[in-house]
Amino acid sequence: MKRINKLLLIITASIIFFGSNLNVIEANTAYRTFTEDGYGRYVETQTAYTVTDTIVRFDDELFLQAEDIKIGSDGNIYIADTGNRRILVGDRDGNFIRTIGEDDLTKPTGLFLSHDDKIYVADELAMRIFVYSLEGELLQEFGKPDSILFGENANFIPEKVAVDRRDNIYIISRGNPNGIIQINANTGQFLGYFAPNATSVTLMTRFRRAIFTEEQLSRMIDIVPSTATNLNIDERGLVYSVSQGENVEAIRKLNVAGQNILDTRVADNFLTSVEIGSLDNIFVASERGFIYEYTSEGNLLFVFGGQDDGRQRVGLFRRLAAIATDGQDRLYALDRDRNQIQVFQKTEFAELVHQSLELYQDGDYEASKEPWEEVIRLNSLFDFAYLGIGEAYFREEDYDEALASFRQAKYRDGYSDAFWEVRNVWMRENIISVLFIIVGFLVLLKVVKIVERKKAYWKRFSSKANEKYNLKLIHDIAFIKNIIKHPLNTYYSIQYENKGSMLSASFWLFILFAIFIAEKYFSGFIFLYVRDGQYTLGTDIAMFFSVFALVIVSNYLICTINEGEGKFRHIYIGFIYSFAPYFIVKPFLVFISNFLTYNEAYLLQLANTIIYAWVAILIFIMIKEINDYTVRETFKIIFLTLFMILITVLFIFIVYVLIVQMIQFVVAVVNEGVYRIGNG
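Predicted structure:
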């Protein structure tokens, strides 16, 4: 939703056009087009499609509140002219050809042109599917299936329809949550429901189900999956559907088993239509006027269009109801409220992208490299082009270049594969040298231990230094190593033997922050959880130390009111020292993550799990030993600490909202005063 609002704000500079007595109004448009980078952010790109024609009538025949559009193999335009209760047929030049179904149709909302040149019409009000020849002869009708499997109370209110090459009809019925209805066109047999949308259950609903009585649950509104809003079928029989609403798969590409094979997310809850292009590219229309173009695998290529504000600007829509493509890859966009069709033509840039994409999808990566490079020359932010080039370099076994291209594309899987090959090449060339370095280091380490055991150079130096200088801080800092072997004794020494100090603990706290920053920004590329090259150190400092202070203070206050024996000093030192495993192992993991691929990712995950579990156990022991609690009391203290943290965060949030509202109120009052004074 935020993306859509952002697009609405930045779409500007369209050319105003005026209606005339001509059937077809020629118009050139200029508006912004966007693509998506590897992180899912919209970035501006060259215009991909421009409006070449605007069709408002076929001769003297106007269409009213039309809901669907299809383009025949002969180039004719078929419109579900809902307001006039008919199918209107014309050509691209605006010439009227014929009307279909004026004696039969009452509210046609969907139509489909089958492979055998039949017109299937979904009539919502008549609750039937009508089948016509291209000349308008009524051939068949399909009403509500009488099969017991359909369901006695299930709705049959056809809104959209599609047909595959096996003459199976796919129907979207308004208010029927069971899925897409399948009927065989030859026998009229109900085949079953196909690919229903998944039910979305919120955490609050699950909580209510867990605690409510049967009577209370019976009063809750039943949660049913939403019904798809439109569908289409490609030449291979794959079904495409779009749905509206939140927490739903908005775009689906369904195989014969009804499984979604497309992993695409779109921040638009108002999708109305889906169309398949000549490259198996997927066009999706939004009621708000945006048109999205995806590759066959679900990568966003372009998004353009937008919602018209009443100034009748070319390329924008009041309510975009449907889209269709013809044999020349022109895109026809039907505006229900403005009763017009805008015809989009590809620009040279989009043609270049499609040429590259065709070669890429055919597996001819080497041939696709040159056009992809031209795309990048025109727009260096077009990340999908880097992905294509990366694949080309990978096929050519130029893994260094593939690595750089995949990183530019933010394509982690490809980066991992390329790095695997780069690492293998390096290991083959340097394995002997690496072995000699490792052996040499081990030998040197052994010699140093033998010399120290005989001569005790380090021991004598540390003793003299300790006698001459006060090295308590150094000893307190080094004392953290004891917690690994003897945590109970370490916590006892902190509390009763004055081991450790606030200063040494603060030193380790800053080390903890440094490791946190290193992990966040300097881990291996495929393991980064922030955008590559993005740094927010100010926010990191504020959040890290605020959270740490909140946890320490909350735990201390809870322990104090529950007869805990630990002082703030003890809890502060003990809590930080409990991160000893993190200090010892985490830097090595951060370093080694730069040399791992997804094949070894499980090792990194396992090591991190062990570290965090180890730290959690040490913190539990610390709370128990320093405050002299039982195990049960310790669990209670931890729960109360977490609860206090939650309450504190909610309180801070409420105060923040009140302050913001107060500031907005003061600003509004001042602005109003200035306005009145200026107009006085």
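Summary: The two ends are 42 Å apart (CA to CA).
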